[in-house]
From TrEMBL, chain A:
<dbReference type="GO" id="GO:0002099">
    <property type="term" value="P:tRNA wobble guanine modification"/>
</dbReference>
<dbReference type="GO" id="GO:0005737">
    <property type="term" value="C:cytoplasm"/>
</dbReference>
<dbReference type="InterPro" id="IPR002616">
    <property type="entry name" value="tRNA_ribo_trans-like"/>
</dbReference>
<dbReference type="InterPro" id="IPR036511">
    <property type="entry name" value="TGT-like_sf"/>
</dbReference>
<keyword id="KW-0808">Transferase</keyword>
<feature type="domain" description="tRNA-guanine(15) transglycosylase-like">
    <location>
        <begin position="4"/>
        <end position="305"/>
    </location>
</feature>
<dbReference type="GO" id="GO:0016757">
    <property type="term" value="F:glycosyltransferase activity"/>
</dbReference>
<dbReference type="Pfam" id="PF01702">
    <property type="entry name" value="TGT"/>
</dbReference>
<keyword id="KW-0328">Glycosyltransferase</keyword>
UniProtKB/TrEMBL annotation, chain B:
<dbReference type="InterPro" id="IPR052026">
    <property type="entry name" value="ExeA_AAA_ATPase_DNA-bind"/>
</dbReference>
<dbReference type="Pfam" id="PF10923">
    <property type="entry name" value="BrxC_BrxD"/>
</dbReference>
<dbReference type="InterPro" id="IPR027417">
    <property type="entry name" value="P-loop_NTPase"/>
</dbReference>
<protein>
    <submittedName>
        <fullName>ATPase</fullName>
    </submittedName>
</protein>
<dbReference type="InterPro" id="IPR021228">
    <property type="entry name" value="BrxD"/>
</dbReference>
C-alpha cells in the first residue's frame, strides 16, 4: 500500500496531505460563484485556481494589480492555501498564449503557494507524433520555469504521457535537469474512463519520484480511494460544481445520484451540515447547498479512507468492498493492487 | 502390488567402460545447440564456404542441404546455427518447417529470435537515433535502456525521429511503429504479436497507429525485408535463415506450393545483400523443385548432400560421443566398449543412418551394463536385432 501522510510547509501555512483541492471557477465566465467552504469544511483550507483565466479577465486582473489580494477576490481567509495551475487545459484545442516566465509572474502576483508549470495537455484523438510533440513542449516549459523560479513558492512540474515509460522517463528527465518540489500528472481527464490505464500511469509516476505527486482533474468519489491507495499526495476536481449543475448528489461509497431519480424521500442520507437539517426539496432547489454538500461528500470520502488507514484496518479489504459494485473499477483496482503488492 | 514393474531412480554404473554416463541420446533428435559434428567434410566445407562468403562480402548467398531422413540435416543446420550465434554481427533464426507458406516461415523466424532479442534490437535502434540527435552516445541496448530509465534522454524527443528514419530505411512505416512500440510495456505484446504475424485486433493496431495487417505472404516478405534492412542499418553483416524440413511444402496444394516458392524467390530478389537462406530438404522433393520451379531453384544454385556414414565416419562419431562422458582423458580415443567389428555390424544394419546408429548405440550400452558384458561384441549387436 503506497498511501502516505505528509505535512508540507507553504507560504500560507502548513498543509497536511493527502489533500483534495477544489477547483475554483474564479476568472471563468461567471467569475467565482463557488459557494464558501474554506473554514466550514476544516479539511479543505485550499483552492485550485486557473492562472490563465484570472490573468485574462482584465477587470479582475486590474484589481489584483491595484492591491486587492486574490484571497479577498475569492472571499476566503488570507491563510487559504492556493495551488495555481497554468490553465493548460485551455490549450487542449487552442494555441499556447503564454510563456513560462509570464505564467510564473502571474502566479507570483496571485501569491499562490504552489505553481504548476505551463503545459500542453494531450488529446486522445491526436496523432501519436503530435502528442509526443506536446509532451516534449511541456517538458521544455517546465525546465524553463525551473530556471526562472526563485523559490518563493513550491513549483510542481506538469507531466503528461499516455504510457508508463513516457511518464517515468519525463519525471526522471525533469529530476535530472530541473529543480522541482513535486510533479503534477495531467491529461488524465480524456482517458478517465480507462481506469486500468490511468492507474498504471499514476503508479509509474509514483514509482518515478518520492516527491509530492499531484494528479490534475481526477478527484471524484470513485477515483479518490484509488489515488490515495496509489500514494498520490493531492488531487483536484471541479466535479462537485459541475455535478451540482446537473443536480447530481454525491454519496460517499456510492458515487453520484441524480436528484430527479429520487421522488418520495423527505431527507437525504448524508448527515453533513448542509443536508443534516434540510429536506430533499430544500437541497433540490438550492444549487449552492448542493455544491457544498458535494464538497462534504468528497471530504468524507477522504476522511473515511484516512480512518481505515489510521485505525490499522486492512485498506485492501476496504477497497475490495468499496469497488465490488462496479466491474470496471473493480478490475482497475485489482490491477493496481497486483502492481502495488509488487512494490511493497 | 504387482512386481512386474521395477521403477527406480538409481542410475546405471558405466564406469566399467570408463564412462560417467550414457553419452548417446535415448531419443535421437537434434539438440538445440549440438556440440558434435562428425564426418561429412564435403558438407561442412560447402556450408562454411557459403556462410563465409556472406560474412566476408555481405552479398546474399543461399544453399540447400539434402539428405535422407535421419542422415543429419536438422543436426547440420542447428550445428551451423550454434556456430553463427558466436558472431555478434549476424542474426540467425531457425525455422523447423515451412508450414503453410512464407508467412509461417517469417513467423517462425521472428519467434526464434524471441521477444527479448527483438526488444533489444528496438533499443539498439533508439541508441543509433540518440547518437544522431542528442549529445549522448549509447553503445547498445542496455545502455540505451539505462539512459531512458535515468531520464538522460527524453523519449518524446527521439521517438518521432526514430519512427521517421526507420520508415525511410524500411519503406514500411507500420513496421517502424511496431519496432518502436516494443519498448512500451503497454503495447509491446501487441507489437510483438504484429511483428510475428500472429494477428491483433483493429483496436490494438490503432493504439500503435499501425494501419496494415501482417497476414499474407506478400506482407511477410515485406516485413522480413524491413527487418533485414533495419539490421543492416544497425551494422549487422547478414541475416541467416535456416529452413528445415523444406520437403513438407510437397504436402501443400500445387497452388500454395507455388505461392510459397514464389514468395521465397521474391525474398531473395528483394535482398541481394545481407541474406543467407539455408534449406534442409529431402532429396526427392528437391529434385521436383529443381525440375518444376526453375525460377526458385536457380536462385539457390547450390546443393550439398548428406550421405550415409562410412565406417570411418562411424568410428569418429562414436569416439566423439564417448568422449563426452569419458572419465579419463587418456581413454578419449578409445571405442570401448564397442569394437570395430561390432560397429561394422551396426553400420551395416543401420545402412549408415545416423539417427538409427545413435538410437542403437544408446540401447546397446545400457543393455551391456545391465548384462555386465565386458565389451559390446558383434554377437551382442546381432542379438539386439
Amino acid at each position: 500500500m503506497l498511501y502516505r501522510r505528509r505535512t508540507i510547509d507553504l507560504p500560507h501555512g502548513k498543509l497536511n496531505t493527502p489533500v483534495f483541492f477544489p477547483v475554483r471557477n474564479i476568472g471563468k465566465r461567471s467569475s467565482d460563484n463557488t459557494p464558501s467552504y474554506v473554514g466550514s469544511i476544516p479539511d479543505l483550507p485550499v483552492a485550485m485556481i486557473n492562472t490563465r483565466a484570472i490573468r485574462n479577465r482584465t477587470p479582475m486582473w486590474d484589481r489584483l494589480l491595484n492591491g486587492v489580494t486574490l484571497r479577498e477576490e475569492m472571499g476566503v481567509p488570507e491563510d487559504t492555501i492556493v495551488f495555481a495551475d497554468s490553465g493548460g487545459f485551455d490549450f487542449s484545442s487552442g494555441e499556447v498564449d503564454t510563456t513560462p516566465k509570464k505564467t510564473l509572474e502571474a502566479q507570483r502576483q496571485l501569491d499562490a503557494d504552489i505553481y504548476g508549470t505551463v503545459d500542453v495537455p494531450l488529446s486522445r484523438e491526436k496523432r501519436a507524433a503530435e502528442n509526443q510533440r506536446r509532451v516534449n513542449q511541456s517538458i521544455e516549459y517546465a525546465l524553463e520555469a525551473s530556471d526562472q523560479h526563485s523559490g518563493e513558492a513550491l513549483l510542481f512540474a506538469s507531466v503528461h504521457g499516455y504510457d508508463p515509460e513516457t511518464v517515468r522517463n519525463c519525471i526522471a528527465h525533469l529530476e535530472k535537469f530541473g529543480d522541482f518540489d513535486g510533479y503534477a500528472l495531467g491529461s488524465m481527464v480524456p482517458i478517465r474512463s480507462d481506469y486500468k490505464k490511468v492507474t498504471k500511469l499514476i503508479l509509474s509516476a509514483r514509482t518515478a519520484t518520492d516527491k509530492h505527486l499531484h494528479v490534475y482533474g481526477l478527484g471524484g468519489l470513485v477515483y479518490q480511494p484509488l489515488l490515495l491507495y496509489l500514494g498520490v499526495d493531492s488531487f483536484d476536481s471541479s466535479a462537485f460544481i459541475r455535478g451540482a449543475g446537473n443536480r447530481n448528489y454525491l454519496i460517499p461509497g456510492f458515487g453520484g445520484e441524480e436528484l430527479q431519480d429520487i421522488e418520495q424521500l423527505e431527507r437525504l442520507p448524508c448527515p453533513c451540515p448542509v443536508c443534516g437539517t434540510r429536506t430533499l426539496d430544500d437541497i433540490r432547489e438550492d444549487r449552492s447547498a448542493l455544491v457544498q454538500h458535494n464538497l462534504w461528500a468528497l471530504a468524507t470520502e477522504l476522511r473515511r479512507f484516512q480512518y481505515v488507514a489510521e485505525s490499522g484496518r486492512n485498506i485492501e479489504d476496504y477497497l475490495d468492498l468499496r469497488f465490488q459494485g462496479n466491474e470496471v473499477t473493480s478490475r482497475a483496482y485489482q490491477t493496481a493492487k497486483q502492481q502495488v503488492r509488487r512494490l511493497t | 502390488m504387482s512386481s512386474n514393474f521395477n521403477i527406480t531412480d538409481q542410475q546405471r554404473d558405466y564406469s566399467k567402460y570408463g564412462l560417467s554416463g550414457n553419452p548417446f541420446p535415448y531419443s535421437p533428435v537434434p539438440a538445440e545447440n549440438p556440440e558434435i559434428f562428425c564426418g561429412q567434410s564435403h558438407v561442412s566445407e560447402k556450408i562454411s564456404s557459403t556462410v563465409s562468403t556472406v560474412l566476408s562480402t555481405g552479398k546474399s548467398k543461399h544453399l540447400v542441404v539434402t539428405g535422407k531422413y535421419g542422415n543429419g540435416k536438422s543436426h547440420t543446420l542447428k550445428y551451423t546455427r550454434s556456430l553463427l550465434r558466436d558472431h555478434d554481427d549476424v542474426i540467425v533464426g531457425y525455422v523447423a518447417q515451412p508450414g503453410e507458406g512464407f508467412l509461417d516461415i517469417y513467423h517462425e523466424f521472428v519467434y526464434d529470435l524471441g521477444f527479448s532479442h527483438l526488444q533489444n534490437l528496438s533499443y539498439e535502434y533508439l541508441a543509433s537515433i540518440t547518437r544522431e540527435c542528442t549529445d549522448e552516445s549509447p553503445e547498445g541496448a542496455a545502455e540505451m535502456r539505462s539512459l531512458i530509465d535515468e531520464g538522460d534522454v527524453l523519449l518524446p524527443e527521439i521517438i518521432p525521429e526514430a519512427i521517421r528514419e526507420l520508415s525511410d530505411i524500411t519503406k514500411f512505416a507500420d513496421f517502424a511503429r511496431a519496432i518502436v512500440h516494443m519498448i512500451y510495456e503497454d503495447t509491446n505484446l501487441y507489437a510483438w504479436q504484429w511483428l510475428t504475424a500472429e494477428g491483433i485486433r483493429y483496436e490494438q493496431r490503432k493504439e500503435m497507429e499501425i494501419h496494415s495487417a501482417l497476414d499474407d505472404d506478400t506482407m511477410g516478405v515485406r516485413a522480413f525485408t524491413a527487418l533485414k534492412n533495419m539490421l543492416l542499418d544497425l551494422g549487422y553483416t547478414a541475416v541467416f535463415v535456416f529452413v528445415d524440413e523444406f520437403e513438407s511444402i510437397a504436402r501443400l496444394s500445387p497452388k500454395y506450393e507455388q505461392a510459397t516458392l514464389n514468395s521465397v524467390r521474391h525474398l531473395m530478389d528483394q535482398n541481394s545483400s545481407g541474406l543467407c537462406l539455408l534449406f534442409g530438404c529431402a532429396p526427392e522433393v528437391w529434385q521436383d523443385v529443381m525440375s518444376e520451379y526453375h525460377a526458385f531453384s536457380e536462385r539457390i544454385g547450390q546443393e550439398v548432400t548428406l550421405k550415409p556414414l562410412t565406417s570411418d565416419h562411424l568410428y569418429n562419431l562414436i569416439h566423439d560421443y564417448l568422449a563426452l562422458e569419458r572419465l579419463s582423458a587418456e581413454e578419449e580415443t578409445d571405442l570401448r566398449p564397442f569394437t570395430e567389428e561390432s560397429l561394422n555390424v551396426i553400420l551395416q544394419r543401420s545402412q549408415g543412418n545416423v539417427r538409427q546408429i545413435l538410437a542403437l548405440c544408446s540401447r546397446l550400452l545400457d543393455d551391456a551394463v545391465d548384462a555386465d558384458y565386458d565389451v559390446i561384441s558383434t554377437e551382442v549387436v546381432e542379438e539386439a536385432f
